UniProtKB/TrEMBL annotation, chain A:
Subunit structure, interactors included: Homotetramer.
InterPro entries named among the record's database cross-references: Fe/Mn_Superoxide_Dismutase (IPR050265), Mn/Fe_SOD (IPR001189), Mn/Fe_SOD_BS (IPR019833), Mn/Fe_SOD_C (IPR019832), Mn/Fe_SOD_N (IPR019831), Mn/Fe_SOD_N_sf (IPR036324), SOD_C_sf (IPR036314)
Cofactor(s) of this protein: Mn(2+)
Manganese/iron superoxide dismutase C-terminal domain ranges (all copies): 129-226
Amino-acid positions noted as binding Mn(2+) in the UniProt annotation, renumbered to this chain: H59, H107, D193, H197
Lineage of source species: Eukaryota, Fungi, Dikarya, Ascomycota, Pezizomycotina
Organism of origin: Lasiosphaeria hispida
Gene3D superfamilies: Fe,Mn superoxide dismutase (SOD) domain, Iron/manganese superoxide dismutase, C-terminal domain
SUPFAM superfamilies xrefs: Fe,Mn superoxide dismutase (SOD), C-terminal domain, Fe,Mn superoxide dismutase (SOD), N-terminal domain
Official protein name in the record: Superoxide dismutase
Annotated keywords: Manganese, Metal-binding, Mitochondrion, Oxidoreductase, Transit peptide
Annotated compartments: Mitochondrion matrix
EC number in record: 1.15.1.1
From TrEMBL, chain B:
PANTHER family listed in its UniProt record: SUPEROXIDE DISMUTASE 2, SUPEROXIDE DISMUTASE [MN], MITOCHONDRIAL
Function: Destroys radicals which are normally produced within the cells and which are toxic to biological systems.
Binding site for Mn(2+): H61, H109, D195, H199
Enzyme class label: oxidoreductase
Keyword terms, alphabetized: Antioxidant, Manganese, Metal-binding, Oxidoreductase
Name the record gives this protein: Superoxide dismutase
Chain ranges of the Manganese/iron superoxide dismutase C-terminal domain: 128-228
Domain of life: Eukaryota
EC number: 1.15.1.1
Taxonomic lineage: Eukaryota, Fungi, Dikarya, Ascomycota, Pezizomycotina
Length: 242, 232
């Protein structure tokens, strides 16, 4: 059975100081969940000319698949390490689970917050409430896009830019490194992958052009839904597909 | 700030290639005149590492990526100098991450180009002499060393580098990885670096990075590594 909650719960355990054997998060009681690569809601070439079909195919069928495969492998090893009371092995597996689990979550959210440019969802008009909040916070949609783009281009190395909704602070732009997952309490509205594999075959070192073009394929309808919902809602949409 | 960078990494002085041709008169007239970092020339053609690293990768990597680090480093140094001249040390300090990133990118790539060579020339093969002896002693064998280095490279989560270094404190050889463009510093002297950023291999190897990590051994310049070891 696919249970996306397990990996979220696991990552929550890692980031807190809870004992690994605590009642609430007893990992040994968790069933061995096997995660699966979600199918894309559009064809590989559907985001052209902004993101090439070749990039999308490699990105989904190779990169995302590798995160899923390595996550499943690491979780298996972790369960074995718990069963044999091998605490050193458990600790050694944590960064691997975080990296690959994060890669799985981030990419699954990413595919859903992209859409072909010709679709109605690609227009910010598909996100009336979110747009209003963005305008309140950044003055205008253009002001927001500029700030978000600057955050994307400021990432040093591999990482992601996210628009998130925080309970107290409201909308905020954050960037995360490598595959650090957006699971620390915010609602992820949409994310943009800034790893070189996300654009290099088409844009080479011209990442500013990728950042400019990705705005054409943001799924504002998904963004609106995530904005209106809770963090649980955002991840619930994922559970069905992975 | 550039002199601080140079002082803290004496072994890397050559790599930074800060122009020494600053006229004393100009030095006197402005308190913060200094040399600019410049893109070093490669000692081989862009296509010379084929088929192991494509000419297109080498050209983009050197002319675009490395150039961006050089430009970013000079920009960061300018900002610091300007802030310093106005006594705005908060502003100067805020540039530290950019200085680390672009300065590191410049240093790392300068070292990288020099520890590569065409397979038809010095590239590939195995180290000899005292370096070989040290590798055998600290890793068991050359093959064991190569496997460990490839494991380190494969384990990098995100962008980064793997380095063979000499630890001046223990006197031994070690493998270290660095995230993004963090330079190798402290008691570690960098001997051999391998760029594990996706831009270093993606056009040719796509997601198959293990193939790149295998192929690059055909173009390692052991003469350069040995001479760095002699000076370390
Ligand atoms: Fe990605
Ligand atoms: Fe590089």
């Amino acid at each position: 059975m696919v249970n996306f909650g397990n990996i979220l719960q696991y990552l929550a355990v890692q980031s807190s100081q809870n004992s690994l054997s605590g009642e609430e998060y007893n990992i040994t009681k968790m069933a061995v969940t096997t995660y699966a690569l979600p199918t894309l809601p559009y064809a590989y070439d559907a985001l052209e000319p902004y993101i090439s079909g070749q990039i999308m195919e490699l990105h989904h069928s190779k990169h995302h698949q590798a995160y899923v495969t390595n996550l499943n492998k690491a979780l298996q090893s972790h369960i074995a390490a718990v069963a044999s009371n091998d605490i050193a092995a458990q600790i050694a597996l944590q960064p691997i689970i975080k990296f690959n689990g994060g890669g799985h979550i981030n990419h699954a959210l990413f595919w859903q917050n992209l859409v072909p440019a010709s679709a109605a969802e690609a227009s910010p008009e598909a996100a009336p409430s979110l747009s209003a909040e963005i305008e309140k916070r950044w003055g205008s949609l253009d002001g927001f896009k500029q700030a978000f783009s600057a955050a994307l281009l400021g990432i040093q190395g591999s990482g992601w830019g996210w628009l998130v909704k925080e309970e107290d602070a409201g909308l905020r732009i954050v960037s995360t490194k490598d595959q650090d997952p957006v699971v620390s309490g915010e609602v992820p509205i949409f994310g943009v992958d800034m790893w070189e594999h996300a654009y290099y075959l088409q844009y080479l070192n011209g990442k500013a052009a990728y950042v400019e073009n990705v705005w054409n394929v943001i799924n504002w309808k998904t963004a609106e839904e995530r904005f209106m919902g809770t963090r649980e809602d955002a991840f619930k949409a994922l559970k069905a597909s992975i | 700030m550039s002199s601080v960078l140079l002082r803290s990494a004496p072994a890397l002085r050559g790599a930074l290639r800060v122009s020494a041709a600053v006229k004393p008169a100009a030095m006197a007239s402005t308190s913060f005149v200094r040399g600019k970092a410049t893109l070093p020339d490669l000692s081989y053609d862009y296509g010379a590492l084929e088929p192991h690293i494509s000419g297109k990768i080498m050209e983009l990597h050197h002319k675009k990526h490395h150039q961006t680090y050089v430009t970013g480093l000079n920009g960061a140094l300018d900002t610091i100098a300007e802030a310093e001249s106005k006594g705005d040390f908060t502003k100067a300090a805020s540039v530290a991450p950019l200085l680390n990133f672009h300065g590191g990118g410049h240093l790392n790539h300068s070292l990288f180009w020099e520890n590569l060579a065409p397979a038809s020339r010095e590239g590939g093969g195995e180290p000899a002499g005292v370096l070989k002896k040290a590798i055998d002693e600290d890793f068991g064998s050359f093959d064991a060393f190569r496997n460990q280095m490839n494991t380190s490279l494969a384990g990098i989560q995100g962008s980064g580098w793997a380095w063979l270094v000499r630890d001046k404190q223990s006197g031994t050889l070690q493998l270290v990885t660095r995230a993004n463009q963090d330079p190798v510093t402290g008691s570690y002297v960098p001997l051999l670096g391998i760029d594990a950023w996706e831009h270093a291999y993606y056009l040719q190897y796509e997601n198959r990075k293990a193939e790149y990590f295998e192929a690059i051994w055909n173009v390692i310049n052991w003469k350069t590594v040995a001479s760095r070891f002699d000076k370390a």
